[in-house]
Please model this.
Amino acid sequence: MKIALIIPTLNAGDLACKFIDAFKSQKLKPQKVIVIDSGSTDNTLKIFGDIATDIYKIDKRDFNHGLTRNVGIDKVRDFDIAIFMSQDAILANEEAFYHLTKHFEDLMVGATYGRQLPRKEANPIEAHARLFNYPDKTIIKSKEDIKHLGIKVAFGSNSFSAFSIKHLLEVNGFPYTILSEETYVLAKLILKNYKIVYESKACVYHSHGYSIKEEFKRYFDTGVFHAQNPWIMQTFGKAQDEGKKFVKSEIRHLLKENPKLIPEAILRDISKYIAFKMGLKEKYIPKSIKKKLSMHKSFWE
Model:
């Protein structure tokens, strides 16, 4: 199979070298590596140029999670598989690409995504988010799983994922959304009876130490996404249901790891819930206020 890797970049900093070193260790490598840079001012392009077969530059104002990835897809329409990675996702083992792409031997697989491990400096709150969403068991999801997995059927992440290009184009590629472009596409693929595979052996180190303010902004944007795409929750179930499971799991985790962090975790969860609910009501909020509440301010330009 012909495999392409597509990486949006912007001032990757010290992580760029770590990304390249981990890429070079892979036993299976993509035949094409496309870097789409939106205005780096450091040495990101020089470092990624070591592995890139094609580099495309766009204006920072034109970046969008979905549409920017479509730029890469347009360059590899004759390929079989497109792997998507973010610049801060560091491959954790030398067979990560192999495990991520092996499932496409089944022509009914529309997409796969790998396991995200917490970065070494992650605190227990940050680490739990990865452990909850990315377990150590491979899962194959299909339309039949909606009744017991709900919205989790359409869960994935373009920080480390792969798509059948044929099937991706069948659902018209990625949409213009504030974020969660992969959720939109995975939901479309599921409804067309394709399978989504979570492969636990395909691992990257990738997590974020967001502040409470940053998490608020991100969850506001998540609420906006669902407000603008109501068919997803109508079809698969409400995201809040999954949130309840997360909070219970988080408390159990922190009781074992560091009980002193429980008050902070509860404060974060309350903040995220309020932000999400506000995002769901975004049509009633003036644009000037939405820009202040949002992590992705350019979306409102």
